[in-house]
Amino acid sequence: MVPYLPNTEADIKAMLDKVGLKGLEDLYSDVPAEFLHRGAYELPEALSEQELRDWLQELDAQNTRLKVFVGQGAYDHYTPAVIPYLTQRSEFLTAYTPYQCEISQGTLRYIFEYQSMICALTGLDISNASLYDGPTAAAEAMKMAVACTRKKTRVLLSRTLLPHVVKVVETYARFHGVELGYVPADNGQTSLEALKAELAADDVAGVIVPSLNRYGIVEDHTGFAEAIHAEKGILVEYCDPSALAVVKTPAEWDADIAVGDAQPLGIPLCYGGPYVGFMAVKKDHMRKMPGRIVGQTVDKSGKRAFVLTLQAREQHIKREKATSNICSNESLMALWVTIYLSLMGPEGMKQVNQTSADGAHYLKDALLSTGKFTDVFPGQPFLKEFVLQPKEDAKALQQRLQDAGFFAALPTEEGYVSFCVTEKRSKADVDALVAVVKEG
Amino acid sequence: MSKVLEGLKYSESHEWVKVEGNVAVIGVSDFAQKEMGDITYVDLPEVGDEVVAGEEFGALESVKAASDLFAPVSGEVIEVNEELADTPEKVNEDAYASWIIKVEMSDPSQVDALLDAAAYKTLIGE
Amino acid sequence: MKYYDKLVFELSQKGRVGFSLPVNKFPGSSELPVKVRRASALPLPEVSEPDVVRHYTNLSQMNFGVDTGFYPLGSCTMKYNPKINEEIAALPGFGGLHPLVDDDLVPGAQKVLSDMNQFLSAITGMHAFTFAPCAGAHGELTGLMIMRQYHLNRGDFGRTKVIVPDSAHGTNPASAAVAGLEVVEVKSLENGRIDVEALKPLLDSSVAGIMMTNPNTLGLFETQIKTIAELVHGVGGLLYYDGANMNPLMGVVRPGDMGFDIMHLNLHKTFSTPHGGGGPGSGPVGVAKHLESCLPQIKVSGFHGNFGVILRAYAYILMLGKENLQKVGQYSVLSANYIKESLKDLYKLPIEGVCKHEFVFDGLINDGAHDDVHGATTLDVAKRLLDYGFHAPTIYFPLLFHQALMIEPTETESKETIDAFIEVMRKIAAEAAQDPELLQGAPHNTVISRPDETAAARNPILKYQDTL
């Protein structure tokens, strides 16, 4: 028996009687007989809870545990112990979308807090209630840029964006009918010269550039907004929101839209998901924004109350004219991030970034000292991630480190190797990694 | 009972037209604003846009619904009512005083195909 | 529930910390050049751990989940979320996995995905699944991209349209628009099903396919599905199945056997993963054999999809096993029909006959309208239900019925709960007939009364900083 199918044979009989049917099969009398599946399904037999536990623990144990020294879109930052205790509260976990606001003030309030915090990090005016992940948020920004500029249909992507972000945007663009252009890099950063050349074609609706790029470099976007706005285009900054505590914000770059993945804000790696995409925009673009938005208001007696608002942008009202098709998003992960940021505060965010950066700089210097690497982009500022050119084969280096228990030196398309250090890695961890590199 | 002003022309999609020379001043009828309920936003076209008779040029939004606005005549948008950006509720307050767009007509004879007040009253069953 | 009016920002005190980070033992202190450094303040709250715990605990107590009470939301399948699944999703071997590690290092995770591929294919009659989509609408989009890709691979560039029933969920046409397809609506008959005669003239070689669900959004089985499939396939189009309504078919009918070529599933509906207040979900997309080659050409999310959600669904299927799959379908349908039969004397049932897992009422039979007093609407009934400790059903969807009230109990509710719901719905109908204003003022017993949504939309206040 499965513990969550509560109705007994007596219950079933009583209900069948009320409905006026003899057996459960009669409930499907309107289904053409040829479609009724006869025989057993090709599924295993039911496991009891304990057997399920045993099996999953076995599978869990089969996954190799490695010390993570790679980022590239998923960062191993520390998760405060408190967070899962709060997100697991059943009133949060098992609640639906807050359409019935009078019994969903919990969800609505944390989303309002989340929106406020995303605006605090990005410096922009308005955030939505979340999107699926960073790459799809970038795709939404691409569509939004076209919607905001109306007559323009081309969107430029920097070559320094993470490859998986580019691939998702390319997929959406291909089907949505948006032409993409690419802005090459110059010494590891998006080239302003090349950008200006592309903008001269006068057909650019928007440009997506990374704040921290695929090489870990913190990009200097001086002049970007000016050049793009002169052509009436939209500047989209793709950011790591954890790093925004210390790097120049999209608002400071005068960007119109900020997107990215909030996974670095304490969300476990979990083999790629669930993460959470974020989007923040300048006030002028509010109506073109995809996703749910929570707003503050009052109830009949003047009590502060929160509701889903500006719903006329969304699919359940505008259908094919909606700003996006998004319905369910990543609400519980937005709660995760909200609690994380509440615990960290401005001081904790500074420390996370400082420790991570110091660790990465320490590692990079130590690796260069081994003589086994050349610096690909010397002098370019970086935070917690960097790339080097190994003298040995990149894949072989990665394998060596893997055999010693490290997930590190991820080969990039160019044949570099990528490293990342977060506050979860100790100095001893870093020294051990370097020792392995030295001995090979 | 909703108000229907004499002297205006009406479309079957509940827009009204006031003809001023070659310009069509366009808004929505009292019936339309009642149907919408509290209007929270008016989606306006831009000055210089072309509108085509029978095609949508904007929208009205309320908390739970959106309703397209259809151009009763073709032409170029020469003015939009910027006030409605901040105070969309003006359309609810006085639908006939709150014009939405002004259009330089490309074919003024299209006005003849629109309904007069009596015919519009019949349409909305009042 | 207790009204708790704080926002976390309001608990902030300068100098308070809620974090525990290791002392930075790395030598040196790296600094970013000023030109790329943040200059503006970071207005995050400064609160202690106990503050945070109390705050979010109090917030949670203003929320209603499936674990709180009955949640008969039509088209949402709010079934019980098994707790063993939470334990499994938290296993550290999965939790600590970076998505870019080589497949052969993570046979456990790979096994979950390959088993799920097999299980979902067996349940639905599809051949292969991709787990990349993060939600149902995301799955719809992915499925439509696959549909277009299939035709493009065949060298057919003229398939620009997709047919969508007028009863469809808003995400269907919205997804079609994102996928670059033109939406052509097909009308429903009075009995709520697709009008096959109206469909015929819409079908030509410009149609990429049809997007539909079965049972449809009214909870009615599309009995003409075989004909519809033949007609659409006949013009070279594909059939897409919106799996939001899969629950009643579990263990009974497979979409693949009905002629569907592509489909998505909502793991956060049919497969018991928690809704989380609006996600995370997972919308895996399954395809028939002839479409499998399209899958690698389409990338819709960063990594492997919402693995943590997939893991929960995996646990659910393993505990159901093949023996219990059919009970899910059958019991969900029985419960829905039971409620329908028990209330159709007081609520308007627009379409008679056996429904599947959900059904629609079109408002009250007697809404209490008299003299100048307007009758109680579906919204009023919904709000009054909140007073009695139930979550309201889905309201004003599908659009075919103006006072639509869509009820889906699911198979995890006991007969006692369902009977209690029926009793309350009867009570509310009686209240409406006597005193519709009581319903119009509802809810009376919740932490807030009906909020001013017009003000929220006209003068949006969307972040704490705006209120200072």
Structure summarized in a few sentences:
The complex is a heterotrimer of chains A (440), B (126) and C (468). With 126 residues, chain B is α+β, with helices and mostly antiparallel strands.
Describe this structure in words.
The complex is a heterotrimer of chains A (440), B (126) and C (468). Chain A has 440 residues and is an alpha/beta fold. Chain A has three domains: 9-55, no CATH class; 67-78 and 345-439, Alpha-Beta Complex (Aspartate Aminotransferase, domain 1); 82-338, Aspartate Aminotransferase, domain 2, CATH 3.40.640. Chain A has 13 helices and 17 strands. Chain A has helices at 9-19, 49-62, 82-87, 90-93, 105-122, 134-149, 163-176, 192-199, 224-230, 315-318, 331-369, 394-403, 427-439, and strands at residues 67-68, 126-127, 154-158, 179-183, 185-186, 189-190, 204-210, 234-239, 257-261, 277-281, 294-298, 304-308, 373-375, 385-390, 406-407, 410-411, 417-420. Chain A has a seven-stranded mixed β-sheet with strand order 2-10-9-8-7-3-4, with helices on both faces. In chain A, helix 9 (224-230) links the parallel strand 7 and strand 8. The model of chain A has no long low-confidence stretch (mean pLDDT 96). Chain B is α+β, with helices and mostly antiparallel strands and 126 residues long. Chain B has one domain: RNA polymerase II/Efflux pump adaptor protein, barrel-sandwich hybrid domain (OB fold (Dihydrolipoamide Acetyltransferase, E2P), Beta Barrel), CATH 2.40.50.100. Chain B contains four helices and nine strands, in the order E-E-E-H-E-E-E-E-E-H-H-E-H. Chain B has helices at 30-36, 83-86, 89-93, 117-123, and strands at residues 9-10, 15-20, 23-28, 39-43, 50-51, 56-62, 66-70, 75-80, 101-105. A six-stranded antiparallel β-sheet of chain B has the order 1-2-3-9-8-5. Chain B has a three-stranded antiparallel β-sheet with strand order 4-6-7. The longest helix of chain B is centred in the first third of the chain and has 7 residues, at 30-36. Chain B is globular, with a radius of gyration of 13 Å. With 468 residues, chain C is an alpha/beta fold. Helices cover 34% and strands 9% of the residues of chain C. Chain C has helices at residues 49-60, 83-89, 92-95, 107-124, 136-153, 171-178, 196-199, 225-234, 307-343, 378-387, 415-434, 436-440, 453-458, and strands at 128-130, 161-165, 182-186, 207-212, 238-243, 262-265, 285-287, 359-362, 394-395, 404-407. In chain C, the strands form two sheets. In chain C, strands 1-7-6-5-4-2-3 form a seven-stranded mixed β-sheet, sandwiched between helices. In chain C, helix 2 runs antiparallel to helix 9 and helix 4 packs parallel to helix 9. The mean pLDDT of chain C is 96. At the A-C interface, helix 1, helix 2, helix 3, helix 4 and helix 5 of A face helix 1, helix 2, helix 3, helix 4 and helix 5 of C.
